[in-house]
Every structure is written in structure tokens, then in C-alpha cells.
Amino acid sequence: MQFPHTPQQTQLPLFEAFLAQPLAPILKDVVERPWTAEPEVFSELSLRGAAGNCLNLLAPILRELSEDQDARWLTLIAPPASLTQTWLRDAGLNRERILLLQPRGAQSAQQLACEALRLGRSHTVVTWLNPLNASLRQQLIGAARTGDAQSLNIRLG
């Protein structure tokens, strides 16, 4: 069977065809509009499983934070007993840039974390608060914004 001859149109490669099309007005508005959202100052990580496995997953995160270019501290508030000085060394963390703080007297870990965030002497304050209700989360966010810091809560299951 023979098809009638139709003149062939030149086919543009995929990206050239896309670039040849004018930007849709909506897309253009979105691209040209400046980003105004505030950066996130609170993150939460949930790890479940054997304690050793959770620590192995946590090690590279804390190591990266301990090597941050920011001259301020990485502060760990009331870390679990398994986060010993030996573990910190073996995990390759820069222990000269880490503060390990425990609440004293009637002070709670939450209060200590908010104070550490508010003071702004730490680039990141890591907590192990569980459960973490909405009110406490908002307190951590407000304190982090005041101190220009990051709050990271880790839930170990």
C-alpha cells in the first residue's frame, strides 16, 4: 500500500522545540516574581529500629553539621546516653565545634533548647524531644528565628 506523498516538515529536537515556544504568561510571572518565603528554621527526623542502626544513620548528619562553615556551635541538648564522647569521636564529628548540654535543676530540655536557640551562639540546636506538641514546636521556631539558628528534633523509635 502506498501513501500519498505529503511534504515533510522538519522536526526540531525536543529541547529546541520547547525553547522555540514563548513562555506562557503564568510561568513567566512565576519565574520573575522574587522568592519571599522565610527559610525553614525547624526540621524533624524520625528514626526507628535498633539503637546502633539509628546512630549509624544519624552519624553523617551530625558530622556534616559539626563541619559547618558557620563559626557557631553545633549544640546537642540532652542527647541519648548512647551518644558518648567515644561515639562522637568514632563517628568522625568535629568535637571542638560541639556543645553537649544537659538541663539542670528544674529546667527542662525544652527550656534549655529554646534558650540555646534564642541566644544565637549555635548554628544548629539538636534535641531529642518526644512527644513534641504544636505549642513547643512553635516555641522552638520562634526561638530559632530570634537567634538566627536551626532547630533539629530527632525522634528515636
TrEMBL record:
Transmembrane segments: none
InterPro entries (UniProt xref): Cell_div_suppressor_SulA, P-loop_NTPase
Gene3D superfamilies named in the record: P-loop containing nucleotide triphosphate hydrolases
Superkingdom in the source lineage: Bacteria
Residues annotated as signal peptide: none
Protein name: SOS-induced cell division inhibitor SulA
The encoding gene: sulA
